[in-house]
## 1
Amino acid sequence: MKDTRLMEAVQRFEHAFALHGNGRHAEAFALYETILATDPRHAPALHFSGLLLHEAGKYDDAIVRIERALEIDDQPADVWSNLALVYMAAGHADDAMGALEAALEREPTLGVAWLNLASLKLQNDDAVGAEAAARRALACGEKRDENPRAWFNLALALSAQGRAVEALTALDRVDAGGAVADDDAAVPGLRAQLLIALDRRDDARAVLDHALARIDHPALRIERARLSDARHDEAAALADHRAVLISTPNEQTALSDLVFLKKRVADWKGLGELQTRFRDGVLEIARTGQASALTPFSFLSDPSTRAEQRIAGEAWSRRWVAAEPRSKRLSEGGLRIGYLSSDLHEHATGVLTVGLFEQHDRAGFEVFGYSTGPDDGTALRRRIVAGFDRFVDARGWEAGRIADAIRADGIDILVDLKGHTERAPTAVMALRPAPIQVSYLGYPATMGAHFIDYLMGDAIVTPFAHQGDYSETLVQLPGSYQINDDRRVVGETPDRKALGLPDDGFVYCCFNNVYKIGPDVFDAWMRILRDVPRSVLWLLTRADDGFTRNNLKREAMVRGIDPSRVVFADTRPHADYLALYRHADLFLDTWPYNAHTTASDALWVGCPVLTTIGDTFAGRVASSLLSAVGMLELIASGQGRYVATAIETGSDRAKSRALRERLQASVRSSSLFDTTLTTRAIEAAYRAMADQYKHGKREPISIS
C-alpha cells in the first residue's frame, strides 16, 4: 500500500512537471499545491512551484518556497542557481551572489550558474568579473561553443570594457534566432551600439532598419531614433519616438527622449501634453516607489517643483545598487580630493573648473582627476590635465575599474561634476569608492542618491529652508556657488555686419541651449521685440541646424514678429564665442532653467544679464551670479517685471550704456571671478565635511 502511494506521488509530480514544461502553468501550480498539501516537505514541488511564483512576479513568495526546499535538501546545485535568479529579480544582489557561490561549490561545471553569475556581475557593473564568468559558462557542457546566452553575456561584458571589436566577434557567435532573450531585439540592439562605438553609423543604421523590418520593437525604435538624432536627422528621430509612444504609451524612455528632443529643436506642438504625461509619470513613481526611465535632467527644464525633482532623481538613482559606505581613516595631513567627470575638456564644466584645479592649496590638498570623456586636444584640456597632481584618463573603463583606481589612490572626498546628465559616470559613485562623496556644479538639483553625501550650493540656489527637497546634506559657499576661471580668454570681435546684426538696432541675446527656451519664454521675448522697434533677438545654434532655426523663425512669425528679427550665431571655439557678447546689449535669461555658464560668460565680457528668480536650483543660478557681481536690479521679481525691464532698457540707450559701463567697471574684481577666493571657500567646505566624518555626523554646512 505504501509503495502504491509513493508511486502515485511520483506520478503526480511527473504530471505536474510535464504541465510546467508545456507552459500550462496554472494547472502545474495547482498540482504542486496538491502535492504540498499532502507532503509539505516535498522539496522538488517547493522548488518548481517557487519558480512559477517567480515567473508570476511574486518574488518574496518564491524565495520562501525555494529556501524551504533547500532547508530540506541543500545539495542540488540547480536549486541554488534558481534561487539566485529569484534573488536577482527581487533586487537582493548580495544574496544572489551567495546562492551562486553555493551552487558552484556543489557543481563547479554548472554552466547555468556561471551564466547567471555573469548576468549578476553585469548588473553590478563588474564587467571584468562578468567576462570571466561568461567564459567559464562557455567552457561547461557538451555544446561548449553553442551557448548563445553565454556568448551574448560575453559580448555585453566586453562592450562594457570598451572592447567593441572583440564584443562584435562574440556577438557573431550568438544564435541569430534570438535565443538570448524573450524577444528579437537584444542582439541587433547590442550590435548597433557596438557599431556606433566604432563610428560605423551607417552600418548601425542598416542593422536597425533590417531588425525593425522583422519586428517593430520599442527598444530598437528608440535606438534608431537616438542614432538619427546623433546624425542630425531630427525629423526621423521625432517620428520614431512618436511611433513608440503610439504602440507603447507607457514607454518612459521614449517619452523622456521625445520631450527633451522637442525642446532641443523648438518643436512645441503637443509639447505641453507630453510634459504633463511626464509629470504624471513622476507622481505615479512617488506612489509606487519604483525605478524610473524618466530622465530627471529633462525634468529640470519642465515646469516642476523641487519635491518633484527629488522624486525623479530618487527613482532614476534606483537603477544602481548602491554599495555600503566603507569606513576609512582620512589621510593624515592634507586631504586627497578626487574630481570625476566626462567633461574635463572644452565643455562648460571644464571652462569653469580649470582654475579650481590649478588654484588648490597643495599644502593642504592633493588633487586627482578621473576623466571618462574624450581628449579633444584643446589647450583647455592640456590646462586641465596639468592642473591635477594625478590625472587618470579612464575613457572606456568600466565602473568597477575606475572605483578600484579611486580606492587605490586613497581618495578622501570624491566630487561628482556630472550628476544625472548625459554620459555621467554615476555607476562609479554608486560603488562608493570614497568615504565622502559630493555633488557639485554639474547638476543643479538633488540627485536623490543615497551614495551622494553633500551638495554644494549657496544661500540663493540652495537655501537651508529647501533642505527637505534634497537627499544630500546642503553646503553653502559664500557669494555664488559657481567657480569661475579668471583666465578666460576673449577672442577678436567679429564684424557686426558679418554676424547678421543691424548697424544700430538694440541686440537682445540668449546663448543658452535651445531646450531651455520654452514657448512661454518665447512669448515674452516676442512682446519685448514688438515694443522695441529695430531690436533683434540673437540666438546660438549649430550652423547646420536648419531644423531648429526654421522652427524658431516660424514661432516668431506666428506671434506677429518678422522672422528676420530672430538672428542666429553659429557655435564656435570658446574664445570666439565669448567675443560675441561685445555686440550684445542685454542677455535675456530663460526659465524655469536659467543661464548658468552662459550667464557668467556674458558677465565676464561685460554684457548685462536680465533674469527672474525661480523656485528650483536650476531657476535661481542667474540670480546667484548677479548678486555676486552686485547687479541686483537685473533680478526681476516676476515675468511681468522681466518684460518691462527688458523693454525699458532696450528703449533707453543711455540707460543701457550706463548699465553696461557699471558692470564692466566692477565685474572683474567681483567675488564671482575671484578664482582663488572661491577655491579657498571650497577647500573650507571640504575640511568641514572631513571634520564631520571624523566625528560621525553629517549636518548642513555654511562657509563664510
Note: Residues 268 and 519 are 7 Å apart (CA to CA).
## 2
Amino acid sequence: MKILGINYIFHDSSACVVFDGTLLAAIEEERLSRRKHSQEFPKRAIARCLELANLKVSDITHIAISANPKRHAFRKLAYMGSLASKMSARTLRLFVQYEYTRLRERHGAFWEWFHATWRGSQRPEVHFIDHHMAHVGGSFYVSPYNEAALLSLDGWGEWSTSWLGSFEGGRLNTFGESMFPHSLGCFYSAATEFCGFKPNYDEGKTMGLAPTGDATRFSATVSKLVRVTEDGQIELDLSHFKFQNGGAKFCSNQFYEVFGEPRKPGAPIDEYHKDVAAAFQEVLETRILELCRVLERRTTARHLILAGGVALNSVANGRVLRETRFDDIYVMPGAGDNGTCIGAAYFLYNHKLGATRRYHHQDPFLGSAYRDEEIRGVLEACKLEYRQAEDVCVETARLVADGLIVGWFQGRMEFGPRSLGNRSILADPTDPDMKDRVNAQVKHREAFRPFAPSVPVEDSQTYFSIQVDSPFMLKVCDVLPSQRSRLPAITHVDGTARLQTVDKRTNPLFHRLLREFGKLSGVPVLLNTSFNVMDEPVVESPIHALRCFFSTGLDALVMGNMILTKQRDNNVNEYQLAVGHQNPILELMSGTTIG
C-alpha cells in the first residue's frame, strides 16, 4: 500500500508518503512556499514527498485527508441558527462564509488537483479521516506503545475541540469530546491576542512570556472562565470571548473590562500583560491536568498520547509528565495540524485498512537533503568563498566555543516546528550574553523569548531534572540548580528549559557535534534554535540558508562539509562579506529570489 497523507483544510498544510507502513517523507508546504503557516493546498509538498520517496503519482493507491467535511455538519447548522438573532446579518454571513465557503474552496482545490492528476480509471481511493483521529489516533499508531490513554486538544477541528479516549485490548475507545465554542485552544488564543501577539500563530510567545509574570494577580479570575466537568467536558464562560460569534477577534469588551487595555502589537509589554499571560498559562496547565485525571480514572494504561495544537505547549507537557501517574507521554514532532497528514495516513493504514505492522515515528528527519556537490554548486554560482572542513564536527565545535553563532545545515530537514539538529542555529549556552545576542542580532525577536538546549540523551540527567527522553523538544523540565549558572543562555527565568535529548542512533552527526563541544567547554550542551528569523519558515534549501546568513548577525554557516564565515570591519562596526559584493547573493538578500 502506498498512501499519500494530506493536511490542507485548516492551516499548516503538509503532505507525507507512507509505503507499506514505512514513513518515507513528510514536508510542510511553508518550507517550500516560504509563507509561514501556509494554508495553500500543498502541491509543492506532495511533489517533493513523491520525489523523495522515488514514486510517481500513478503509484499512489490511497489518499488520506486529515478532515472529514461531513462530521458535525448538522451541529454546525444548528449553532449558526442559534446565532441568527444575536448578530447582524453581515456578521452571520461572514461566519457562514468562513465555515462553508472557505471549506468548499479548500475541498475544491483538492478535487481540482485530483482530477487533473488522475485522468484515467486507475485512481487512488480517497479517505476523509476525522480530524481528531488524525491528531491522536494517528499519533498512537506511530508511538512506541501498545496501549495508551489518548488526549487531543486544539482550537477546533470539524467543530470538535477535544477528544478523550484510550487504546486498550486492541480496541480504540472513545470517552468523550467537547464541542465548539468550548475550547482550551481558543481560551489560550484569547490571552495571546490580549498580549499583542497573533492568535492561532504566536501561542509560543505567550508561553514564553508567562514565567516573567505573577500568575496570582489574575489566576482566580481566569480560573472562573473555564472549567472541566467530571466526565471531561470543557466549558467556557463565553461572556469574556468573541470568537464564537463569527468575528476575527477572540476577546470581548468584558474581557478588557476585567483585565485592562490590550497591548498593541509592537508596544512595550506592561506588567499586567505578563501577569495575564502567567495566569492563563497556569489555568491551562490545571485544566489539562484535570483532563488527565479523567483519563487516569477511565483507563489502566501506563502511557499517554498528547496531540493537537495545545500539545505544543511544552510547559504543560512537562507538568503532565511530573504530576500524573503516566510513565511517559508521546507527542508527535508535528503535534499541530501539520502532523495530521502523518496521523491520517497511519490511522487509515492501521485502523481502517487493518494493517498490523506498527511504525515508530522517532526519526523526524523526513524532508529534503542536499548533497555536498549541490551545496558547492550554489556557493560557486554565488561566487562565495568557503573552506572544506576536514572534520565538520570538530571545526564547528571550535567556532561555537569561540563565541560564534553558527547556522547548521545538514542532512534531511526536520518535520515539525522545532529544529532538532539539521536546520539549526547553534550557540554556546555557557555564555551569559548569548541569549540576548541571538535574539537581537539573529532572530530579531522579543528579548524574553527563551532558547532550548540540546544534549546527548545519555548526559541529560547530569544537567536536567528529567527521567525520560525528550527527542522532539516538547517537554519542559527544570535545569538542575547546580547547573543553572553553567548554562545561563538556555535557562529560562523560572529555572526551566525546553529540552531536546539527542540519540546517537537517530542523529549521529549532531550527537558527535555535542560531544566535540563538550570536550572544549566541559558541557556537552548546545543552544539550539530554528534556522530562521522571526515570522519566516525554517530554511529548506542552501539558497534559504544563505539568505538568512547574509541578512542576519550569524557569524558562520556550516552546510554539509562547507564552512563560510564573515569578517568584522571594526571601523563601521557591522558585518561585511568576506568576498566582493558583486554576486548573485545580493538578489537573495533583496528577497526577490525564493528557491
Note: The chain has a mean pLDDT of 91.
## 3
Amino acid sequence: MVGRLDMGLNGEDRRLWGRVRMAMLATLLMCGALFAAGYLSLGQMATEHRESAEDVARMERLRLLADSMADEAAAVHSARGPAQAFLARETLTSTLAEFASTASRLLQSGERSGDPAVRVMLRASPTHLADALIEAHALAVTANGRSPGIERPAARRAAKKLQRLVRRRIDGALEDLIALTKRRVEARSRDVQASAKTIAVLALLLFILLWRLSLRPLLETMEKRTGALIQAKADVERALLFDGLTGLPNRRNLVERLERLDPASPLGILHIDLAGFHAINTTLGWETGERLVRYAADTLVDLVPRTDVVARVNTDSFVLAISRETDPEQLHELAVEIIEALAQPIAILGHNVALEAVIGIAARRGGREPAAKLLANADIARARAREEGGSIYFSTAMRERLAARRQTAQELLQAIVRGEIEPYFQPQIDAATGEITGVEALVRWKHPQRGLLNPHFFLDIAEKSQIGRRISDIMVRRSVEALAEWQANGLPVPRVGINFSAQILRDPELCDRLKFDLDRVGLEPAQMSVEVLETAFVQGDDDPVIITVGALAEAGFHIDLDDFGTGHASLSYLRHQTVSRLKIDRSFVRELHLRPRIRKMTAAMIQLAQTLEIEALAEGVETEAEWRLLHEMGCNGLQGFAIGKPMPAAEIPAWVAEHESRRAGGQIVAA
C-alpha cells in the first residue's frame, strides 16, 4: 500500500511522505512501549494486592478456627458420655486438620513472597499456632479421663489459658500481617511510581528525539507547503478576477463589481475595441501585440479618475465603467478623447504603431436597468461602431437590427439543411474573340418567403456567425460538380471561379481540401480560379492569407484579384507574382463614358496588368459601348449583363448554345 502511495510523487513529496511514515512509526512504537510497561506494572501490582488479600483472609480464617477449637476443647472436657466425648474429639480433630491446611497455604504464600520479613513471619506463625493447638488437644484428651492424673477443672483452666494464648498469638500475627501487607502495597506503589517516572522520562526523551528528527521537519515542511498552497490559491483567485497581462479587472470581476452597485445609481459603459489590433498582432508578432495592449491599458487608466473601473474583457477589448453622474455629451467627449489618445503613434520594438479604436456607449439615467443589460447594450453599439467607425451611442434600433441578424443566421442554418443555398454562374468571355473563358460562381439563397436573395443580404451575417465556411464548402462542391458535368457533355467552359473570404483563406488546409474536391470529380487545379478580394490582404510576407494564396498558386490554381482598385494592398501584393488576373471593379466600368478621370484610371490598371504580363477582366459590362471601349484599352476579358446574367447550372448549356450560335453568326454582343 505504501509503495503504491509513493508512485507518482516527486522528490519533495517523497521526502515529506517519508517523514510522515517515520513520525507514524515512532509514535506507534512509543505508545506501544508505554502501554506494555504500564500494563505489566499494573498487572504485577494487582497480583500482589490479590495475594495479600488472600493471606489476610487466611489469617481471619485461622482466628475463627482457633476460637472454634477452644470451644470444641471445652466441649470435650464437658462431655457426659463416651459418645458425646467421641463426637467432640472428632470435631476437634477435623477443625485442627483444617487449621493445619490453612496454615500450610499461608506458609506457602510466605515462601513465594519477595519480602524476607513477610516470608519469616508467615513461616513461623502457623508453626507456633499448630504446636499450641496440639498441646491443647493433648490436654483435652487427658482431661477427658484418659489421664487420670489431671483433674477436670485444671484441664478446663489450661484450655482457657491456651485459648487466650492462641487468640493472642493469632491476633498479633494478623495485625503484623496486615501491617506487612500494607507495607508491601506501599512499597509496590513506590516501585510503580518509580517505573512510571522512568517511563515518563523515556517517553519524554523519545518524544524529543521524535520531535527533532521527524515531527519538527514534518511540521516545517507542512507549514511551507501550506503557505505555498495558500499563495497558489490567492494566485488562482487573482487569475480568476484579474487580467494576467495588464493587471486590470477581467470580465468576471467587472460584472461582480457592477452587480454590487445600487440599481438606481447612475452608470455609464464604454466598450472600447482596438479595431486594427488583429492585423498588427499578425504582422508584427505577439510580443508587439502584448506591449500594445499594456500601452492601451495604461492610457485608459491615465485618462479616467480612480473611481472609474477599467477592465480588459477580451483580447482587444476594454470596458470603462463610470459610476458617477454624466450625460450623453460627456460620454461622447470622453470616447473621442480615448480614440485620439490611442491613435497617437508609439514606437514598439522598432515599429511606429497607432491604434484605431471604436467605442460603443450605453448609460443608465433615471432607470433601473441591470448592469448586465448595459454591458450588452454597449457591446451592441461597439459592433455597430466597428462597421461605421468612431463612437456610437446605443439605441433600441440597434438591438432590433441585431435580433434580425440573429434571425437571419438561424434561417441560414435551416437553409443549408434544406438545400436552399446554391451557386448561380455568370459567364466570362474573351474581349477580342467572344470565346468563353470561364464562369464565376455567385452564391444565391432561394428563400421560401423572400424569393431569390443576393449575397448582399446574408453573406456578411454568415461570415460573422461562422456559417460562411459551410456555405463556401457547398459552393465549391456544387460548382466543381457542375463544371465536370458540362465538360462531360462537351460544353466549352474551361474554368469556374469561386470567391473566398479572408477568414477562409487563413485556413492552411484550404489547398488540400480544394484539390480533394477537384480530384473527386476528375478536374485539375488549373480548372478553378480562386477569386480573392484585395481587401483580404494586409502588408507583410507572413500574412496567413498570402501564405495560403501562394500555396494555391504553386499547386496550379488560377488566382484572380477581385474588385481591383477598391482596396489598399494591391500593389504590395502584386509583387509576389502569384496573381493570374486582375478583375477591374464594376464601379470603374459604369463611369467610363461619364468621367474621363475614371477612364484614365481604368486604362492605367489595364496597362499595369499588361506590364506584369497577367490578364485583366472587367466586371459589370452592361452595354456594347463599354465592351468596345474596354477592348480598345486592351482589356482581355469581360463579365456582365451584356454577356450573360447569373443563372443556375441547368441554364448554362442553353446559354452556351445560344452564345456560340451568335459567335458563328458574327454577333459579338448578346441582345
Note: The longest strand covers residues 436-447.
